[in-house]
Write a structure and sequence with these properties.
Elements (H helix, E strand, L loop, with lengths): L1 H41 L8 H12 L4 H31 L2 E2 L11 E7 L3 H11 L8 E7 L4 H8 L6 E5 L32 H11 L15 H20 L10 H8 L2 H6 L5 H11 L30 H17 L1 H4 L27 H10 L4 H4 L7
Parallel strand pairs: 2-3, 3-4
Antiparallel strand pairs: 1-4
Helix pairs in contact: 4-5, 7-13
């Protein structure tokens, strides 16, 4: 009897010992994984979001490298690849989850509007924008969706700290940050933006052959002879992707200023939208309106309810200052406070009809001639989520 009890005690001790070992191993793996993720997160700010400068200097830098330096560069590439892969998985997860912050503020009965906001990297402007949203009338009837093309911890903190409105974040899955050295980012084998395709010289034919072998997109300059500029074409891609996600793949679709019926009309001509040689999404829509929608009637208010926050933007090449912007914001805020009663009148509105003769078609702005950009743009118009990206987005 004593031996039997002793034998059972030995077995019991062995079981406890191995359970302890297994638990400790699992804890070690979990802690190691968390530390690895924190390390990846902390390296996010080191990721370049403007890789054009990096690629311009790449060839010159490689000329004078020693073997040790090559090994260091290879290590850096591996680290960056790990970070990029983590970011791609992060984007896939976020787009799949469509997690709603402050979901207790959302109601299918009271939420009437969806406000889509396209975010890049200007943290100061985004912070001011969020502050101004608090004062917007009917903001409590709005679902706010931020669409990002750059992952930045500072931006994420601003978004997650919003408490006055339900918020969803989505991420453009083909950004330059996620594809820094391949299409749709900057492929090292692509033609530089300002390289001339044609030259009036005896060596023009040889130059053409050299361009064809050296540059992937040599046959596709825009109407002005320029080749694709990643940071510019990304804006149109992002806008088109964002709207298609909101209407076809978002879980909360209640309509926006661009109604669902208008979106269906636009997407019928997706091929023309994606093929017109203009890197601006808004001018591409104007092109469609003139060509396909018979100059639709438009209603607008005599005083704008939306203001342009900053002087630092895609089309502003001059030196800009956040301080001057802040001063202008204060002046604008005072102006709107004094005239608030005119913005939301209680009396019936008066509509003035104004007819303008048809204007000639505006010349396109170029910058959208690369065949790959056009194909990527068209893929977003497809309703099947497997066709628009490798991201698994549920209907």
């Amino acid at each position: 009897m004593f031996r039997f009890i002793r034998y059972r005690c030995i077995i019991f001790r062995h079981i406890i010992f191995w359970l302890f070992i297994i638990i400790m191993m699992k804890l070690t793996i979990i802690i190691y994984y968390d530390l690895q993720q924190q390390s990846i997160d902390s390296s996010s700010l080191a990721l370049p979001f403007d890789d054009s400068k990096l690629n311009k200097e790449k060839k010159q830098t490689l000329l004078n490298l020693t073997t040790y330096q090559f090994q260091s560069i290879n290590t850096t590439i591996i680290i960056n690849r790990t970070t990029i892969e983590y970011y791609r998985q992060y984007v896939q997860r976020k787009n799949h989850e469509q997690l709603m912050y402050n979901d207790y503020l959302f109601s299918s009965n009271t939420t009437r509007y969806i406000l889509l906001v396209q975010v890049h990297t200007r943290v100061v402007y985004l912070k001011k924008f969020i502050e101004m949203l608090k004062a917007v009338q009917t903001i409590n009837q709005t679902l706010l969706i931020f669409s990002h093309d750059f992952i930045d911890p500072q931006i994420n903190i601003l978004i997650t700290n919003i408490k006055f409105v339900p918020v969803i974040q989505i991420f453009y899955p083909f950004s330059q940050q996620l594809y820094p050295d391949e299409f749709p980012g900057l492929d090292p084998n692509d033609c530089p933006r300002d390289i001339a395709k044609h030259r009036l010289s005896k060596k023009s034919a040889e130059r053409q052959r050299a361009l064809a072998t050296r540059c992937k997109n040599a046959p596709y300059p825009d109407k002005y002879g320029h080749y694709r500029e990643v940071s510019i074409v990304q804006i149109k891609h992002h806008w088109w992707w964002k709207v298609s996600i909101a209407y076809w793949h978002a879980r909360y679709n209640l309509g926006m200023t661009v109604s669902y019926s208008l979106w269906l009309s636009i997407v019928q001509y997706a091929e023309e939208f994606c093929n017109v040689d203009d890197y601006n999404w808004d001018w591409s829509l104007v092109y469609l309106a003139q060509k396909r929608f018979n100059y639709p009637r438009v209603m607008w208010s005599s005083s704008a309810r939306v203001i342009h926050l900053g002087s630092c933007g895609t089309h502003h090449k001059k030196t800009c200052s956040n301080q001057s912007d802040i001063a202008r914001w204060e002046e604008t805020d005072k102006f709107y406070q004094l005239n608030r009663k005119y913005l939301f009148p209680t009396n019936p509105l008066t509509v003035h009809a104004k007819y303008e003769a048809r204007r000639p078609l505006k010349q396109t702005n170029g910058g959208w001639s690369d065949l790959r950009d056009r194909q990527l743009c068209l893929s977003f118009a497809l309703k099947n989520p497997k066709d628009i990206s490798h991201i698994n987005i549920k209907n």
